[in-house]
């Protein structure tokens, strides 16, 4: 997978082309990602135990990972990332444009 949870990504294809959002979830088996505010779906939910009110629920549906690009936080552009081992052996991602390491977001 070329993106991780918490990454800022740009959508490069489909209805949401040009928008950006944060990766909420990655589904490696299906090569899909869920991005905040992208690919919204509406469900008309019958009242249930979990949701006694029912009503109209909107949520993000997964999109294919190939349709998003990682956004470099340093140059604020969609960019590919090069991988490199830093001196203490951890894998680092470098923006191909500005060569700045792209940090992995803290998972809350
Ligand atoms: Zn950059």
From TrEMBL:
GO terms for biological process, alphabetical: translation
PROSITE patterns in the cross-refs: RIBOSOMAL_L24
InterPro entries named among the record's database cross-references: KOW, Rib_uL2_dom2, Ribosomal_uL24, Ribosomal_uL24_C, Ribosomal_uL24_CS, Ribosomal_uL24_KOW, Translation_prot_SH3-like_sf
Residue intervals of the KOW domain: 2-29
Keywords: Ribonucleoprotein, Ribosomal protein, RNA-binding, rRNA-binding
GO cellular component, one term: ribonucleoprotein complex
Matches recorded under Pfam families: KOW (PF00467), ribosomal_L24 (PF17136)
Protein name per UniProt: Large ribosomal subunit protein uL24
Organism: Candidatus Kutchimonas denitrificans
Gene name as annotated: rplX
